[in-house]
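--- STAGE predict ---
source: upstream dedup step, 1 unique chain passed
mode: sequence only
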Amino acid sequence: MAIPETRYPGSPYPLGATWDGSGVNFALFSEHAERVELCLFDAPYGRSEVARIELTEKTDAVWHVYLPEARPGLLYGYRVHGRYDPVHGLRFNPNKLALDPYARAFTGPVDWSPAIYAYDVDSPEQDLAFSEADSSPGMPKGVVIEPGFSWGEDRPPRIPWHRTVIYEAHVRGLTVSNPGVPASLRGTYAALGHQSMLAYLQDLGVTAIELMPVHHFIDDQRLLDLGLRNYWGYNTIGFFAPDSRYSSSPNPGDAVNEFKAMVKTLHAAGIEVILDVVYNHTAEGNQLGPSLSFRGIDNDAYYRLMPGDQRFYEDFTGTGNTLNMQHPRTIQLIMDSLRYWVTEMHVDGFRFDLASALARELHAVDRLSAFFDIIHQDPVISQVKLIAEPWDVGEGGYQVGNFPILWTEWNGRYRDWIRRFWKGDGGQAGELGYRLTGSSDLYEQSGRKPYASVNFVTAHDGFTLNDLVSYNQKHNEANGEQNRDGSDDNQSWNCGEEGPSGSTEVNELRDRQMRNFLATMFISQGVPMLLHGDEVARTQLGNNNTYCQDNEAAWVSWDLAPRQKRMLEWTRRLIAFRAAHPVLTRRKFFHGRPTRGAGIRDIIWFAPSGAEMSEDDWQDSERRSIALFLAGASADMIDARGRPVVDDTLLIILNAGHEPVDFRLPAPARPERWALALDSARPEEPAGRLMPAGRRPYTLGARSLAVFTHKTRPL
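--- STAGE serialize ---
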């Protein structure tokens, strides 16, 4: 590599390393640094530093230089000089190569040697002892990229929220075993954009794929020592760089274009791309963690330090540190990152990990924090899908229902109460009513809509759907923490013996429960989210925390047994049914009032007797069965004889009890019949069997759900 000799002052904006077609501008923020050096390399690893260039220009705490001879592909990092005074929050150490927080690409992993720590790991003073070892040989390097890409006619699908069906997936875990993808591409961005994957997602019927973290992340030393790795990726070190491990090319920087190509092909298939982003913390951990980037660039600006004892970090994330959302440059970093992924990488939205941590002004979570204010006024970010994981691990961090307009939320209450209902817990009727109808108790008062609720039963963090109904206790022994990690999710499902397989009767009960969960999710108001592999009854053998299992235990298997194929067909059927019935995807909450012109209330709740639910019914602690009548929006369209032109009215009956229940199908308006659409106890029964209202009851099996469409008869 030719060493750039010519240097110009350059510009403090944009931050990062920017190729403009003639040269590269480098700009790095550091408010408290005394001196900054740009280091250039000709190889990713080893002692390959070929030049150090002092950045003599500083504008508004940004150090900058322009190298007209630099080109894309150049590898770089920084050495930042200043005081090493951890007690006062300063941890500068120029012996440690600092990764550019704005780098668009990185090379490879970290070599976990003592040199990557800013302190002498052998000193009894721990992080107070300054280290003189050079970390650069074992550090990744930033890569200058060529930003140009042929997007052609790419346009965001812009699926309305109320018609959105989310598929939560892991780039590698979903594709690494897919035989329809060439072996050289499996586990990569290119695999996800391969025609076989596109066809599968389209056939399934999902409208958006929510990718677990793809920002460049670090494998923890503890996991590597155990022969494991950070599979999930919630350990970010670069908020602008797609992780190179998911690239099919070994060339530095190629991950960027491969990611763009994936997005382009998914868009062409009508599928949106949502990123799970981890802006609440970084991979540098607590005061004993490594010095990789932010810590050595400006520790006091980027992290929340303990008031009165700045040696230590405030930790609302359970990872050792929390980003400092009170500093304008940290907020700028996140906003610049979000805009970059929308404008340059064309993604369609974000799911914010531990979003409550981003909203903390001092200690309390503030829904009117600066972070929300800035997002709401931003002309780019305010127009994409925004999903909050509405909790963190700090006091008062559980904030389901408290995020502002524009935001949707992972509805943890939906997950918890739908599980309790199908487990057979009594007294769930009132809570169930709210969860099935969009959780108006959480979202309506603040002016939000039913689609503010992202409804899920399982997600990456916890049991798969198959394991939820197959295990009463977690089995995380392979994680090396004596089964102490992961949630204590003791369900006691009473599905028979625990384990990956059982008798025919036990397996049928498990499958029915899975069908119940899936059906409930897709007939509920709100936005359904399906965990990858749940549609084929994927198992993790009871491990409910596979964050470190990059192996068959966490991957989706494409070798499907007959029961898995049946579950896949059931899921496809449910998603198609939801798409065909607008009454399931309302943009307004039900209010129990008559629909315009038809004289029928938009929702009515019934007991199995066919009588409307009374207050006593709602309060019955033993109630495990319920029915709801949904008057479709099209019922407002009345012909000259007062009949609906197109009928989208549904009747849904649910029985979480251990015995069958006879339901008398109600007739709330005129003589009518009901046509069976689906029954979770009879999944292969053809739809269309007619049942007269108010006469012979329909026997709904134990622990099952049925849905009927409406058939009117002339008076």
